[in-house]
Amino acid sequence: MCQNCNLDEKEKKLQEVLNKHKDTKGALIPVLHEAQEIYGYLPLSVQEIVANALGLPLSEVYGVVTFYTQFSLYPKGQYKIQVCLGTACYVKGSSSILDELKKQLGIEVGQCTKDGKFSLDACRCVGACGLAPVMMINEDVYGTLVASDVANILKKY
Amino acid sequence: MKSLTELNAIRQKIAKVPDYKILVGMATCGIAAGANPVMAQLKKIAQEKNLKNIDIQLTGCIGICRLEPIVEVYDSKGDRYTYVKVDSKKAADIMQKHIIEGNPCTDYLICDDSDSCIKNILETKSFKKQIRIALRNCGNINPEHIDEYIQHDGYLALGKVLTEMQPSEVIKLLLDSGLRGRGGAGFPTGLKWKFAAAAQNEQKYVCCNADEGDPGAFMDRSVLEGDPHSILEAMAIAGYAIGSNQGYIYVRAEYPVAVKRLNLAIKQAKEYGLLGKNIFGTDFSFDIELRLGAGAFVCGEETALMTSIEGKRGEPRPRPPFPANKGLFGKPTILNNVETLANVPVIINKGPEWFSKIGTEKSKGTKVFAVGGKINNTGLIEIPMGMTLREVIYEIGGGIPNGKAFKAAQTGGPSGGCIPAEHLDIQIDYDNLVAIGSMMGSGGLIVMDEDNCMVDIAQFFLGFTVDESCGKCPPCRIGTRRMLEMLEKITDGKGEDKDIEKLERLAYSIKEASLCGLGQTAPNPVLSTLRYFRDEYKAHIYKKACPSGVCKHLLNYYIEAEKCVGCSVCARNCPVNAISGVVKSPYLIDNEACIKCGVCYEKCKFGAIYKK
Question: Mean pLDDT throughout B520-548?
Fold first, then answer.
């Protein structure tokens, strides 16, 4: 996410993305990925800009944003925590990791802490099944977790 | 790249053999286990001690996830040493003792089942039973260097195909090899290519399905991270065979390392002229674009995947028309899975006869499995088709941890089924697995032990499909939700007589009536657990008991009087005051008032609380 940019700068970056994808076939999803990189999420105002630039109805853009779990209509935390609830992790007790995180952060799945630092999500398999149970904080992967590891990991951020 | 001669020049351009080549496993699993500080330490020492003529490289996943981070040392004599669970301190020791003083650190080497450590992974019992075709380069080359891939026979098959073979010969060769799609259903790859080759259109597409959505499977991630060029090469070969000049790789956004390495590989291949115009000086041109998924399991279904590349909601559409005639952007398209493609260059280099000698009558070659769950050796394995499940679990997998009993192996993820102990001796191939109510699937193999409740597992998978159903067709959208509600009723202890029959009837209707593979296979986890573990369902419904002690609502907590010292910790922590007693004498839980939160169970220091 572009943390230090003001809104105008973000919009400028978005315009660059839109220009870059002018001739891309099926550009909507790549554009939304990059827009989310810039804004951290995809509010309606951003969806409108994208829809106008690509010549698509806003309903179609909104339909795509809400179809895919990677896209978010709401802001996420600075650190996005994702707890894997894939089969291997589930079998090895990842729900206890998720419960501990909820307790430590005082938030539910899908929510963000008040200071905007952490958001908590459950995800389906990050592909590190050999290390189950696993969670990801932004792009860092933590494996072979037990519930008591959670507090120390959170302290790092 | 204008000719095979030019490729051969790179093949032979092997720089001076270093005294030591050091490879650090840096796929997602290695990085998660701490490979970054290890790599930094190795490089720091090499620099500080001014070590010349050693080569430190990153590599992909060699498959032994539980022993990560892994560092392998190759010396100039050709000896190979596999160090496991390396941390910064061990890395420093390896540099000092092995690299500087020339004495391998035997204490850190990989061990087999016995206590004595052996030199390298190739000597382990579990590795000796494997044949590595799709994973041939994973853990052996640096995936970020195209030259290393070329020096391991990379792009040789593409060169051969473009300069010596007709497209029809390539297809015939694949048909002869017997290669079947590794994504799950096992459709013959050569046949798929043949159909698309026959379609008349000036624009055709080659797609690679790298949207590995099956939770518990990571074969494709390992190939993409460890050997991305093999996929590019195979796609170009496919392009030549069917007459396409454009490929798309649809990869999960959840795999950032794979995305980075694929992008790098595409850039390098373009620089070398192995992608782009007039490859190997021929008329053939081919380009590849990467498309990121956005977290939708249904996009693993071929028509949904193509709709998603087109930039729309990833909803499947009815077939026919099949993608071979009308696929991406309405043009003839083939879609192959990562592992399938990884096999292609090897089959061309070594010949279809060689390939078809491996495996069973109808399933040729090898299959990669991501082995996880309740098993000692979690990781990635590649076995010849026809190996028994028992060999996989007990000989390669090292059996079940903590002396527990094997209950079932789950293959095929949310589309597959559970294989019980009575079928441990089944030979793994496409047709055998279908015959016992499971399927090969993409290669997730999750082992469950006596502590896993099969009704709970079925509910887990149904919960997954309900979340991931795209909503286009009612049997899947509504039917799976109804099934999940029935399962929840059963695990909540509210199951009634005839619930099993209702569940079965609905399951078969959903299979019959759903539009795409997701819905057609969604009931499988329920049907296969009903087939082999019906007694567990019955225990939940008629005895209101969960035999494995998993389903919360069917459990009661008790205090074992002999073990209870009367410390009162449980009573003080109970949120609903359901525990009563007098200090220094055994306490008692009132099961009527208990909400089964498990706090007392966790807090008791004397192990006096048990659940039943």
Answer: 96
For the stretch B180-202, pLDDT in tens is 999 888 999 999 999 999 999 99
Considering A81-85, B125-129, B131-135, B594-598, the range whose residues carry the highest mean pLDDT is B131-135
- Name residue B82's beta-bridge partners: B72
B547 in a structural domain: no
Which residues of B are less than 8 Å from A71 in CB distance?
Answer: 294
CA-nearest residue of chain B to A93? B373
Q: Give the mean model confidence (pLDDT) for residues B280-295.
A: 96
Determine, for residues A129 and B448 on separate chains, whether the beta-carbon distance falls below 8 Å: no
pLDDT at position B183 is 87
Burial of B267-279, coded b for 16+ CB within 10 Å and e otherwise, reads ebbeebebbeeeb
The enclosing H or E element of B342 equals: helix B338-350
B548 within a domain of the structure (yes/no): no
Instruction: Mark whether B371 and B350 lie in a shared domain.
Output: no
Å between A19 CA and nearest CA of chain B: 17
Please, what is the end-to-end C-alpha distance for chain A in angstroms? 17
| Confidence label for B102 from pLDDT (cuts 50, 70 and 90) | very high
Domain that holds residue B607: 556-611
Q: Using the beta-carbon criterion (under 8 Å), do B212 and A88 form an inter-chain contact?
A: no
Tokens of B5: 């001669």
Same domain, B152 and B114: no
Q: Where are the beta strands (DSSP E) in B297-389?
A: 333-337, 366-373, 379-384
As for how many domains chain B has, the answer is: 5
- Continuous H helices in B142-188: 146-151, 156-164, 167-177
Across the interface, of A71, A124, A141, the residue whose CB is closest to B215 is: A124
Instruction: Please indicate, yes or no, whether residues B436 and B463 belong to a single structural domain of this protein.
Output: no
Do residues B522 and B566 both lie within one domain?
A: no
pLDDT, tens digit, 9 for 90 and up, residues B468-488: 999 999 999 999 999 999 999
Could you tell me the CATH number of the domain that includes residue B499? Answer: 1.20.1440.230
Taking CA–CA distances from B291, the nearest residue in chain A reads A30
CA distance B162 to chain A (A): 28
Nearest CB neighbour to A68, from listed B296, B373, B460: B296
Q: Which of B74, B102, B128 is a domain's end point?
A: B128
Q: Model-level pTM?
A: 0.93
**B:217-236 residues touching chain A, CB 8 A cutoff:** 217-218, 221
Q: Does residue B602 sit at the A interface (CB-CB below 8 Å)? A: no
User: Of B520, B542, B564, which closes a domain?
Assistant: B542
B261 shares its domain with B397: no
Q: Give the whole-number percent of chain B exceeding pLDDT 90.
A: 86
Same domain, B340 and B371: no
